[in-house]
Amino acid sequence: MLWALSALAVPLLIHLWQKRRVVEVPFSTLRFLKVVAARTNRSAKVEHLLLLLLRSGIVALVALAAARPVASQLSAQLFGGQVARAVVLVVDQSFSMGYEVNGATRLQTALEQASAVIDDLRPGDSVAVLGATDRAKPVLPELTVDHTAARKALSSIVLTEGRSDFGPVLLEARKTLSRNAGGERQIVVLTDPQAQGWMFDAKGVLDADWAASGVKLIVVRTDNTVSPNASLLGMQFDSPYASAGGTMRGMASVANFSAVPVQELFELKTGGERLVQRAVDVAAGTRLEVPFEFQIPSSISGKWLPLAGALSGDRLAPDDKRYAVVNLTQPPRILVVEAGDAPERAKPGFFLRKAFLAGTSPAPVKTIKPGELDELNLDAFSAVFVLGVPSLSDRAAVRLDRYLEGGGCVAVFPGEAFQNAAWEKVEWMPAVAGERRDLPAERLPSLLLEPQHPLFNSWDASTPFPALPQKRVLAWKPRPNARALVAMGQGIPFLMYGERGAGKVIVVNATADLAWGGFPVSPAFLPVVQEIGRLSSARSAGGKAFSVGDPVPVPGGIAKDQALNVRLPSGETVVAPVGQPLLDEAPLAGLYEVNSPKDGVVARFAVNVDGAEGDLNSESPEALEKRLPHTALTGLEELRSWLERSRGVAPLWPLLLVLAAVLFGVECVYSNLLARHRGQGEEGAIQTGRLAKRRFGQGKAAVSEGVAT
Prior knowledge:
By secondary structure, the protein is α/β, with parallel strands linked by helices. It has four domains: 2-69 and 654-708, no CATH class; 83-226 and 616-651, Rossmann fold (3-Layer(aba) Sandwich), CATH 3.40.50.410; 230-329 and 610-614, Immunoglobulin-like (Sandwich), CATH 2.60.40; 334-537, Rossmann fold (3-Layer(aba) Sandwich), CATH 3.40.50. Helices cover 28% and strands 28% of the residues. The protein has an eight-stranded mixed sheet with strand order 18-17-19-20-26-25-24-22, with helices on both faces. The protein has a six-stranded mixed sheet with strand order 6-5-2-7-8-32, with helices on both faces. Helix 4 (106-120) runs antiparallel to helix 5 and helix 4 (106-120) runs parallel beside helix 13. The longest helix has 56 residues, at 653-708. The relative contact order is 0.12.
């Protein structure tokens, strides 16, 4: 359109070709009109030049406006403007971006869109790059005018197995922009259409500071393709531990995030051996609980049962898999601490020892005096039963505390010599003992307050907990974070449970002998004692599940003063610093293994993706706009079109059109004044000519008369 400037020749040619109208007037002499005529001619030339400039200016401004010019950074700064852009690119790295559309993953499309934004930047524009899951992952954390470095940063962004949450990411992006002195500030989020990442509290992000900062939010979606998907949300097991050759039951949760029914095949494996295979039909937009049951292979060995569940799969693989680690029970190793020198049948631990020797898998039991606790290594035992001990020495209490912190199990039975005041000082006790109370000579009904607790696997709705033949009890008061599992009579706590570190503490409101009643010979004694033993044998570090991105601490029961190696699902091994968490952030879903140079494999745990990230359904732009004001774009072409319309510089064509209109108005007024002035001048010249002619005639007559005379 700048070639239209050649139209400036038009008013020039008009002025050159314009013929002036000349009025001829006969004069006797022009001697007295020469000076006036010369001055009039010079004035006419000046007036014509101004009119030429006005008309040329109008044509030039219209031509320039048609070229749609914008103010460059340099010219804007010369006029005091600030048009340089500061852009923070936020690229979604969550695993939903691995969904393929038209042969490319959405992450690949988002990276192409991010490159288009960088290509549109002008010299002097600054850019930073952040990866995004449920937290900001700095790739190029500081604003830079080095656009080559920004392109290189984009190439380092890869798909992760994390979930999306743009709340903390937008806060980090705003913090990055706050370090920019001026200019236009933009946050450009490149993501898929799913609504999952925008479910944060918008008020915590778009606060008054956000509004005052003038930051513009641009959300660029990769596409608007409908994305059907199913997800394995989780697996639950009836028991936290299992035994080789035993039966295990559980429930798998499958969600269908599609608008049509899906057919899936659920499989559960351990070490490549299939344990469960079930066809699953899930209605549109629903969630289905799939029960399963399997027999644990007799050949399984070790301390853990690693399990991997999976669906048949679709175009988004990470949410089709689920991992778990179940502790395999080991033969319990029992330590009995009892006071007194009575005959064997009268000792507090007589019935306890009989209980652990009963059954098909007798458990070894070691018995010591209370004083031996001060020096004995407790780590060799899965459970410590303290029976009728009046009090503990400070050293014994500390050693038991450390044993509990490491994942041990302590069960306390009081007795006649039990010193309430001394035991109240023991910090790891879950309850404080009160006065002794005598009960009626009858069996008191009992109530399971937490029937789902692992201690009660022997009882269910059809097999209630038996009545208790107690004659005497203590009035216990549970401490904070402790609770009663069994109550008898009118709410008297009978079985109290608490945790200390990774360990468990159980207090039984009865003696282990017959001094306070017939509990040791009741139907409840053997199952309760053996379940405590089984619960303690699950001390192995396993069963804990984490999500991708979670920090992973050192499991309980493992000394924290040693270097540990963590084997990732990928096969890579990382070293955990001494005294630090195993992992600051779990990077992958799968089964992990913890190794000690001294003891070999000391723990196993599972890490899973957030199945809700598999919900690829989008939120309507109108609904999202109400919660989060932004500019919404979809696809690469729409992004490029928007970039062309808003490059971060000031468009000048409206101003040029306004100036052209102003000049046109001035030209109209000025040309009218000139025309009026010229008309008055010509009329005056005609009148002057007529007067001169008349006077010339009179003079001629006078001359004739004089000659005659």
